[in-house]
């Protein structure tokens, strides 16, 4: 659609027709745009205007007008129809593996496939200052998969993972390693019914064809095209960071587990908006597998090319519930047996010596570095102006059992749980009292002597050269 000078709406649509001598673009105007015509149909155009077209391969185009007559699949001239039908037979969809045979950008192809992955829509700014939109995913058939990008209006359309689509007039784009497809204004995307897509493998069959299902224990560094099903055991807060180019990014860590082990998963940018909670099962398609030198383990990275989905019923049958997983995966230890390399161990002991004097640590909202002076107007580390300080909640103390004692430091959500207060409420009271934290003394006395059962990592404190606990979860909090 477009706006005419008089403010009314106009309609225009372009199609391409072919015979044995070549092709020409036909531009339909007004009511002619409502013509019901499908790819492969025979179209007879009578009374059109022939105009020069610098962008057309033939150098010309046909424009319809008020006097143009259009007929779809007209009767008569069987010999001509036979020749045109032979051309139509060559216009049908190609297999997805055949997309990779194309060697040039901008070639038009038709495919039929099932949408296997679909990322969030991203906006970008064009050179002319206008805003564009793009959404990428993967579409597959029995011969393989191809990356597909939906642009602008096509990016804002509704698609469903696992649904089958016929994509007409997609344009090839030579990617870094393989040919990809672009879906823009001239592309038609048609959702197919179950009957129309009966020749396509099911979503589950395509997943098994494309991705190797792996238990967490079996994941190895640099694994590619894998699928992991696990239950969420831990979720950390989302953190903001600044990239080298000055743009802002988001990162968030979660831990998932199955009956073979647990693994840390790093979510980046849009993927940090996780629509799942602790104890829920998720399926991760095509994560990047990295080796973490600090933990001496592999972990998973989830960015734009990775999808997080809800597992199927069959994928859930062998996945234990969260209590079973905790008993399987988390080793219970007493304090005397703790070692520096311990990760996600269960510790039970009595909490004492809560130190509330530095419960609020001022941080730069941009680089997240600690500020020595809360009145700083500019961060001494990154140089950015500070509009509003970001506060980290921190509560040190000790845990004691029959075998010994160890320093422990709680952060953020765990401090909220112990004090039974929200972060924003603590900050508001702190600012109202102009830095006086006396209002927390009663809260600190309430948690003194409580028996806590924790899930924690063992870290090293360089200051006093001793190990200490960094809790990740509070299982029990009782007198």
Structure, explained:
With 479 residues, the chain is mostly beta strands. The protein folds into four domains: 2-89, Beta Barrel (OB fold (Dihydrolipoamide Acetyltransferase, E2P)), CATH 2.40.50; 96-205, OB fold (Dihydrolipoamide Acetyltransferase, E2P); 211-328, Nucleic acid-binding proteins (OB fold (Dihydrolipoamide Acetyltransferase, E2P), Beta Barrel); 330-478, Nucleic acid-binding proteins (OB fold (Dihydrolipoamide Acetyltransferase, E2P), Beta Barrel). The chain is built from eight helices and 31 strands. It has helices at 78-89, 96-99, 203-210, 313-316, 322-329, 413-419, 423-432, 441-447, and strands spanning 2-3, 9-10, 12-19, 22-29, 43-46, 49-52, 60-63, 69-72, 108-118, 122-125, 131-141, 144-151, 164-174, 179-183, 188-191, 212-213, 226-235, 239-242, 248-258, 261-268, 281-285, 288-292, 297-302, 307-309, 331-332, 345-352, 360-363, 390-401, 404-411, 451-461, 466-478. The strands form six sheets. Strands 16, 17, 18, 19, 20, 21, 22, 23 and 24 form a nine-stranded mixed sheet that branches. Strands 9-11-12-14-13 form a five-stranded mixed beta barrel. The mean pLDDT is 89.
């Amino acid at each position: 659609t477009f706006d005419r000078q008089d403010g009314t709406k106009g309609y225009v649509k372009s199609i391409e027709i072919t015979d044995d001598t070549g092709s020409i673009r036909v531009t339909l105007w007004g009511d002619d745009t409502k013509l019901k015509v499908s790819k492969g149909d025979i179209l007879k155009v009578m009374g059109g205007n022939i105009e020069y077209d610098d962008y057309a391969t033939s150098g010309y185009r046909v424009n319809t007008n008020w006097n143009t007559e259009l007929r779809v699949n007209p009767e008569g001239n069987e010999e001509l129809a036979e020749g045109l039908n032979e051309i139509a037979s060559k216009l049908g969809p190609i297999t997805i593996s055949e997309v990779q045979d194309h060697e040039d950008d901008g070639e038009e192809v038709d495919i039929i496939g099932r949408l296997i992955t679909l990322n969030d829509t991203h906006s970008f700014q064009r050179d002319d200052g206008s805003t564009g939109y793009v959404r990428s995913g993967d579409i597959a058939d029995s011969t393989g998969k191809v990356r597909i990008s939906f642009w602008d209006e096509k990016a804002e359309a509704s698609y469903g993972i696992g649904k089958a689509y016929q994509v007409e007039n997609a344009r090839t784009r030579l990617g870094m390693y393989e040919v990809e497809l672009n879906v823009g204004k001239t592309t038609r995307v048609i959702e197919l019914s179950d009957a129309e897509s009966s020749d396509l493998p099911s979503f589950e069959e395509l997943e098994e064809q494309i991705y190797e299902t792996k238990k967490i224990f079996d994941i190895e560094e640099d694994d590619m095209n894998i699928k992991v099903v696990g239950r969420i055991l831990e979720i950390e807060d989302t953190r903001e960071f600044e990239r080298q180019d000055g743009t802002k990014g988001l990162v968030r860590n979660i831990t998932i587990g199955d009956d073979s082990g647990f693994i840390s998963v790093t979510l980046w940018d849009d993927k940090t908006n996780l629509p799942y909670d602790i104890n829920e099962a998720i399926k991760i398609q095509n994560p990047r597998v990295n080796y973490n030198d600090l933990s001496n383990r592999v972990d998973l990275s989830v960015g734009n090319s990775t999808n997080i989905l809800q597992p199927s019923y069959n994928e859930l049958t062998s996945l234990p519930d969260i209590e079973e997983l905790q008993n399987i995966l988390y080793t219970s230890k007493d304090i005397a047996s703790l070692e520096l390399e311990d990760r996600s161990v269960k510790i039970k002991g009595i909490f004492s010596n809560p130190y509330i004097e530095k419960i609020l640590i001022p941080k730069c909202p941009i680089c997240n570095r600690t500020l020595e002076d809360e009145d700083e107007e500019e961060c001494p580390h990154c140089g950015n102006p500070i509009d509003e300080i970001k506060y980290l909640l921190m509560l040190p103390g000790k845990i004691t059992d029959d075998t010994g004692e160890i320093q422990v430091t709680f952060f953020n959500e765990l401090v909220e749980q112990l004090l039974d207060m929200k972060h924003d409420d603590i900050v508001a009271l702190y600012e109202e009292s102009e830095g006086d934290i006396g209002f927390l003394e009663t809260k600190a006395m309430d948690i003194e002597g409580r028996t806590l059962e924790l899930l924690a990592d063992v870290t090293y404190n360089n200051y006093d050269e001793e190990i200490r606990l960094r809790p990740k979860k509070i299982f029990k909090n009782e007198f």
